[in-house]
Amino acid sequence: MGRMTHKRLLCAGAGLLLLIGCQSAGRPEAPSRADLSGELVRLDHAGPPAAEAGECWQSDVTPLVVETVSEQVMLAPETIAEDGTVVEPASFRSETHQRIVQEREEIWFRSPCPEEMTVDFVATLQRALKARGLYLLPLSGELDMPTRAAIRRFQADRGLESDRLSLAAARELGIVATDLDKL
Length: 183
What we know:
The protein is α+β, with helices and mostly antiparallel strands. It has a domain at 36-64 and 104-178. Helices cover 31% and strands 23% of the residues. It has 4 helices and 6 strands; from the N terminus they run H-E-E-E-E-E-E-H-H-H. It has a two-stranded antiparallel sheet with strand order 1-6. Strand 3 and strand 4 (86-88) form a beta hairpin. It is flat. The two termini are 59 Å apart.
């Protein structure tokens, strides 16, 4: 290997290490998904929760979730002859029962206040949902059924099964100010 080839390899290796170091140090972390279930408030009395000035709440009702379980119960075991052949197969009966997995309940969560839900705000919401592939129609600025369905799809992946926009989801979508924006 010639002297120039050796220098080129050393320079290329040093350059590669420099690029790797720059990429890992200067690259911002990908945003994480908010866990909206942590934002839910369950009350033992009629709501809403106590609110501070400028704070608004929405409520929704989680559905009753019932699980149906079917199982086979043996009525009689199989009968086997002395030579090992099955004389009569076992007989079974299907039994089905249901159990409640989750009770229906009213949940509360912070939300943008009604006066913030302007045509421009809803159009911005639709644009943010459209950018994520959740809203496919033209922007209308109306909080209609397709918009609500897109809100539900966005929030359901994050632990909130509701078509009403939560404040935490609006922050994650980047359409309301966060605490960092106020600094």
